[in-house]
Structures are given as C-alpha cells and as structure tokens.
Specification:
This protein is of the alpha/beta class and 216 residues long. The protein has one domain: Rossmann fold (3-Layer(aba) Sandwich). Helices cover 36% and strands 20% of the residues. Strands 2-1-3-6-7 form a five-stranded parallel beta sheet, with helices on both faces. Helix 2 links the parallel strand 1 and strand 2. Helix 2 packs across helix 8. It is globular and about 50 Å long. It starts with 10 loop residues before the first helix and ends with a helix.
C-alpha cells in the first residue's frame, strides 16, 4: 500500500464493511515498546481470553499514519480517502472488534500524540446533516460496541492524570461505544515496571474480564 498517496476512490474501493465480532482490540498509544502500556494491554487481553473472548494488540507507533487534516472528504466518501496510510490497516480491526481498549501514557496531562491522532482519524465514522452545525450520527452506534480506557502515569493522584481518561472516554462514547470500565494506573514510569505491581495488574485483569463479559 502506498502510505502517502491520495485517492478519489469511493469508500467501497478503499475498504470493505466488516461485521463486528465478539473480540477485543487493544490499542497502545505508548512510543515505548514493551513498556507499561503494552504490559497493561496484554494483561487485559489475557484476562479476556481466559473469559472466552479473543483479542489482539496494536501498537500505534508501529503504524505510519498522520493526524486528521480536516479535509472533510469523509463526509462524502464515508471513509478516510484523503490519507491512504497506516490507518487503513487499523480501520478493519476497529470495525471487526466489538470491544475496544485504549491505553495511553500521560503526556503533558493528556494522551500521547499517537493516541490523539488515532482517535481523530475515527472522525470518518460520523455522518452529518446538510446544515452546519446540525444533526450528526455515527455508523458505529447500535452495534453493541463496548470500550474501556486506561491511563498510565508517573504521578500519583488525579491531578497528575489531567485530561487523559476524559480524552479517550468522551470520543468513544460519541462514536457509539458504551464505556464499561476506566482505570488510572499511577506511580509507574520505568519501562515495564507495572508488571511487578500486583495490585495494578489485578485491576487490569478485572477490567479485561469486564470488557469480555460485556461483548459476549
């Protein structure tokens, strides 16, 4: 796939519509491979798997994609046709998975740039009326989609988390997901150290099981 080319193709030529399944897509927004966000996502997926729901992990830093450029072509095409980049590999996984888990480190009181770009690129799932501002809807709604969000930060307390959980929760709810769990993990910074925090990993296991139970 040419990740930098533009196309005027209609959305059906870009990607097929995929029926959602009882599975979980875990999305790590951390740039550190094998770091705390990855450990958390894998722990949640393992717990969900034990509960009978399969899943997979994607690390956003492994995909070449840009932020939303506000071209509004998706209003017409019902898909992101302006940027044929790594997000075209992620859209089918989002569509296929009834469960979505977003995990992001706290970067300057918010999600990472990778997570923000990923969330913004989901804008193509919205449908809008002819007036602006006006009515809107989402093509991911009314499908039984469930989500959970986790923030990971060095500082203890809600003041250190800032907007991180909210920045993931609100867009997912607007897109049509029911949020079934959200968990801040604090007091961890060194790469992968959260794996030694039994309390945190137990909470993440519970989150994974709750998300699995919701999508069954």
């Amino acid at each position: 796939m040419n990740e930098t080319a533009n196309s005027s193709a209609r959305p059906e030529a870009v990607r097929a519509r995929i029926a959602p399944e009882a599975r979980i897509l875990a999305v790590s927004g951390s740039p550190r491979k094998g770091g705390n966000s990855d450990k958390i996502a894998l722990q949640a997926l393992a717990a969900a798997g034990e509960a009978g729901v399969p899943g997979s992990l994607v690390r956003l830093v492994d995909y070449r994609f840009g932020p939303c450029i506000g071209c509004e072509r998706c209003r017409r095409d019902k898909a992101c046709t302006a940027q044929l980049d790594g997000m075209q590999l992620l859209y089918p996984q989002v569509e296929r998975s009834l469960g979505l888990l977003l995990v992001s480190p706290v970067h300057n009181y918010n999600v990472t740039a990778w997570m923000k770009a990923f969330i913004d690129r989901l804008y193509c799932y919205y449908d809008f009326g002819s007036t602006r501002p006006g009515e809107w809807s989402t093509r991911l709604a009314d499908q039984g989609r469930k989500a959970a969000v986790v923030s990971v930060g060095e500082q203890h307390g809600s003041e250190g988390i800032g907007l991180t959980l909210e920045a993931m929760r609100l867009p997912l709810q607007a897109l049509g997901y029911e949020l079934v769990a959200e968990t801040p993990v604090t007091g961890v910074f060194e790469r992968g150290r959260v794996a030694g925090d039994a309390g945190a990993m137990d909470r993440i296991g519970d989150l994974g099981r709750r998300l699995a139970g919701a999508v069954k």
